[in-house]
Amino acid sequence: MSEPVLQTTELRRSFTQGDVTLEVLRGVDLAVQPGEIVALLGQSGSGKSTLLQAVGLLEGGFEGSIRLNGREAADLDDNGRTELRRDLLGFVYQFHHLLPEFDARENVVLPQLVRGADMPTAVQRAEQLLSGLGLASRLDHRPAKLSGGEQQRVAVARALANRPPLVLADEPTGNLDEATSDKVFGEFLKLVREEGSAALVATHNERLAAKMDRVVRLHEGRLN
Questions:
Q1: Which phi and psi angles does 114 have, rounded to 5°?
Q2: What are the residues facing 32 on neighbouring strands?
Q3: If we measure between CA atoms, which residue out of 179, 181, 189 comes closest to residue 159?
Q4: Strand pairing class (37-41; 198-203)
Q5: pLDDT tens digits, the chain, 224 residues: what are they?
Q6: Angle of CA points 65, 69, 70, to nearest 5°
Q7: 6-223 is classed in which CATH architecture?
Q8: Contacts by 214-219 with C-beta closer than 8 Å and gap 24+?
Q9: In sequence order, what are the residues at sequence separation of 6 or more whose Cβ sits closer than 8 angstroms to the Cβ of residue 166?
Q10: Residue 30 in contact with residue 223, Cβ under 8 Å?
């Protein structure tokens, strides 16, 4: 078997307020294989977002090991973690976080330019992804002119623009109605599979979780 694209060992995170210490992650061991789509299932407050923040290298304060494509994040300084995040990860959040002053195409072009792509290549890639998500006629629309489902499709395209080995998604359709959620999530899964990326998708929705390759459950800070 090939090396996991993501592997955590004894991952822990606690928060202290006054005399009270809250253990959110209590020794999480998780491996995600290349191309595998894994549902991270758990109720609100179970620590799903905290786990994604940890493996996404978005904040410190964690104990244990996080390996991305075989590289240990704990061994890296801030610049090294930034490079690892840029080169290996794509992110989709519950709220799209698109840049409001840029249109759909530009929102997908920008992360490619940051990565070092030339403009013609970045534009071609953006238009390919957005067209595949049914947005060929909406390329020059800013987020305010797009529906909620369309905005989230742009966010999906942006996450996959640099062909990341791993996509992290936190309730990616949680702010959409059920019908739109099903459609956008189906498109998300299809695109991730076509691109060959792995994905770790946090959700509390059992129905959506069942559509993925494997389900892991986070309860009281541990996976089971």
A1: -60, -35
A2: 6
A3: 189
A4: parallel
A5: 578 999 999 999 888 878 888 778 888 999 999 999 999 998 777 788 889 988 998 877 788 999 999 889 888 888 888 888 888 999 988 777 899 999 999 999 999 998 889 999 999 999 999 998 889 999 999 999 999 889 989 999 999 999 999 999 988 887 778 888 888 888 889 989 988 999 999 988 888 899 999 999 998 888 87
A6: 55
A7: 3-Layer(aba) Sandwich (3.40)
A8: 214/36, 214/37, 214/38, 214/39, 215/38, 215/39, 215/41, 216/30, 216/38, 216/39, 216/40, 216/41, 217/41, 217/42, 218/28, 218/40, 218/41, 218/42, 218/46, 218/47, 218/48, 218/51, 219/42, 219/46
A9: 5, 6, 32, 68, 88, 89, 90, 197, 198, 199, 200
A10: yes
Instruction: Tell if the pTM clears 0.85, that is, is over it.
Output: yes
Token reading at 54:
């940890």
Sign of CA dihedral 196, 211, 6, 126: positive
What tokens were used for 203? 């959700």
Residues 211 and 185: beta-carbon distance below 8 Å: yes
Phi, psi of 144 (to 5 degrees): -65, -20
Q: Where are the domains of the chain?
A: 6-223
- What are the φ/ψ torsions at residue 154 (nearest 5 degrees)? -60, -40
Q: Which two tokens stand for residue 103?
A: 């249109």
| H or E element at residue 206 | helix 206-209
3-state secondary structure at position 3 = coil
